[in-house]
Amino acid sequence: MDGYRVKKPDVIISIDPDIDKSGVSVVDVKHKEIQFFSLTFPEVIEKCGNILHECEISGKRIKIIVEGGWINRGYWHVNPYDSKAVAARKGHDVGLNHGAGMKLVEYMEYHKFPVKVIRPLKKCWKGKDGKITHEEINGLLRRYGFKEMKRSNQDVRDSLLIGIMSI
């Protein structure tokens, strides 16, 4: 659904798609609750469908946001010391990752999920390659009135960052 907008969603599902397991966060804006998951492609579809159904029954407004790395013009993470094989492997993996995200969005649009694709957020955090750290995501959660997470992985932190920044 290109240009799909929900002015003030009650629930935001944010997804950082990946080949094997995608980071998925569910942010209940009104109740200041979060859930986060690391899910396979079929599990993402099932989880989003279940939450969408629950929101339709309860009258909650929902927004699904998918990080679309394929929107960027270029992806250049090859360093000068990479061999041709390493550079090719990186390109292959990025292509698979982008393809997984594109198919996820295609499925959701076909089934009329309220999905919006966004550009990847700027990598300006203290973690490796500018990624957000566990401490930084907890700082954001506190700032927005949510409970801190005890543990997190990078995919979950990335998806949660997308959700929190979309409030």
The number of helical segments is 4
Strand content: 15-25%
The global form is globular
Describe the biggest sheet?
A: 5 strands, mixed
Radius of gyration: 16 Å
Assign the structural class, choosing from mainly alpha, mainly beta, alpha/beta, alpha+beta, or little secondary structure: alpha/beta
In brief, what are we looking at here?
The protein is an alpha/beta fold and 167 residues long. Helices cover 40% and strands 18% of the residues.
Strand and helix layout:
Layout: E1 11-16, E2 22-28, E3 33-39, H1 41-58, E4 62-67, H2 84-110, E5 115-118, H3 134-143, H4 154-165
Parallel strand pairs: 1-4, 4-5
Antiparallel strand pairs: 1-2, 2-3
Helix pairs in contact: 3-4
Features:
4 helices; 167 residues; alpha/beta
Structure description:
With 167 residues, the chain is α/β, with parallel strands linked by helices. The protein is built from four helices and five strands. The chain has a five-stranded mixed beta sheet with strand order 3-2-1-4-5, with helices on both faces. The model has no long low-confidence stretch (mean pLDDT 90).
